[in-house]
Amino acid sequence: MSTPNEPQNPYGAGDQPEQPSNPSGEGAPQQPGGQYPPAPQYPSDPYAQQPGGAQQPGGAQYPPAPQYPGAPQYPGAGQYPGAGGYPQQGYGYPKNTLGVWSLVLGIVGLLFCGLLTGIPAVIVGSKSKKAVAAGEANNGGMATAGIILGWIAIAWTAIAIIGFIAIGGIAGYSDWLNDMSSTSGY
Amino acid sequence: MPGLQRRPLPVPGAGGAASGPRARLSRLRAPGAVAVAIAGATCWLALVDPHTPGQYGVCPLLALTGLYCAGCGGLRATHDLAHGDLAGAWAMNPLLVLAVPLVAVLWARWAARRWRGAPVPPREQPRLWPAWLLLVVVVGYSALRNVPALAPVLAP
User: Fold this and answer.
1) CB contacts, 8 Å: A109 with chain B
2) What is the 8-class DSSP label of residue B48?
3) CB of A118 closer than 8 Å to CB of A157
4) Scanning every residue of chain A, which has its alpha carbon at the shortest distance from the alpha carbon of B129?
5) What is the rounded distance in angstroms from the CA atom of residue A17 to the CA atom of residue B10?
6) Do the interacting molecules here have an ipTM over 0.90?
7) Rounded distance, CA B94 to CA B77, Å?
8) CA geometry: angle at A18 spanning A121 and A3, to 5°?
């Protein structure tokens, strides 16, 4: 809650109950609008490990200011009531995992059971897109690739299932299978 | 800064560290649902034998390309495992046999964490390597299964 003596600061630290447990973050720059120090640029290469010392304790984990031209877009301002008090401090882009998982599930869906991993790829990918929009992730390209691959996996599996039904279901397939002298593949 | 006093932690409902038995049980709903789903599917596979060709339809990838993917033989291996036939399961899909204890451990850790209700400790960097490891293992395993020299060991 902003106090009357600071009416110009509606996004003060009091509105951020999800960041309470950072001992060194008291008085860290929480106000919106260009006061974040430029964040270390995390490479989108997920193998690249950020050295631990590069994490500044307060505020530096946010992307640079141009993504937040105005105060209303500030992502930390109480928009995560379900965060349950998990401290956000110390994260780079805490939801970059979503994009990676989406891409991995999409690729696996292409050569695996398409529905089993293609559908999660699309779901996780759209979650990742939301995280990118909220400034919690910076790998939207991976999410896009994962969503596209997921849909391709779903589509070709659906086409195959339709084709399986078209040749007469299990009975028709058994005849076909006898010609192929193969197994079900499951 | 007097105006920047932090509020105490909000006590979240089911996700927090409430320790009453009802809260604990409600937090175990998701792990419980997953366990019931896996157990149910395993029972179904134990009763309806996937070794019978066409019993569960046809694998689209195998039908279209003739290639074995990482999951090929997975249902048959699950059936064999449910009947206590470890060798049979290993012959069908060794990766699945190896994955079962790993999945069990991960599930137990998840359930225990939910039971305690403790928040996940923050990480400096989100962990990305499990996803890439899964990708490498699945793609590599799929490729190796289709190498004729390795087919007797890896292919179903």
Assistant:
1) none
2) S
3) yes
4) A47
5) 7
6) no
7) 8
8) 140
